[in-house]
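cron nightly-structures :: item 1 of 1
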Amino acid sequence: MKLAGKVAIVTGAASGLGFATACGLAAAGASIAAFDLDAERMERLHDEIDPARLMLCAGSVTDEADVGAALDAMVRHYGAVHIAVNCAGVADAAKTLAKGEPFPLAVWNKVIAINLTGTFNVIRLAAVKMADNVPDEEGERGVIVNTSSGAAWQGQIGQAAYSASKAGVMGLTLPVARDLAPHGIRVVSIAPGLFDTSMVAGMPEHVTRSIIERMVLFPHRMGRAEEFAALVGTIIENVYFNATTISLDAGARMSVR
């Protein structure tokens, strides 16, 4: 699917991977519906994207009404929904047992709700809109790109909920791709490794350097959000990517902590 002239919803667009992806897809000619709970931070996108090709949609990926309203607005304003990129996520951590206390169930429920259920909520509602598109010369009507994580199979201490949620994203990729193949909709997930985003921005320099030295094979640095965005663009434009999870991690292997 060529990006020029297409319409994409990007969740988690206020920062990090989502922000970079929204900017990257817009630079390639797509119109963007940026979706995030943080409406104020999303305003920064006005400095990067032509306002005529940008729609800001405040809401939660866990809320059916919020996501449905954003997709309806896209169809009304742009005429279609061709692409959905799921970048919304949280990384709240807790040990299964710490100081005699069990993992707080509220933390578990929050992480699973946003990272896994929220991703599927966007997938299922976006698929309805994509199925109405006129197929292109390949028979394609839509592309969905999800964000898993290297933690899906290399979870560290305290990452039970996060790892489970990202393993769930990886696990749903194939069956959902099979469900949507008859409609000409592809589904691919990306499993990023250690990226320089807000989730690690608060770490001291010596801590991040230690992580890089111990875990990252080559190049010896954190990933850049623009590199994630570039892979999203490649997946969208290369129709033979489907039903798989792609690692983007510089060969990183997580340690216990």
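cron nightly-structures :: done
The first helix runs from residue 16 to 27.
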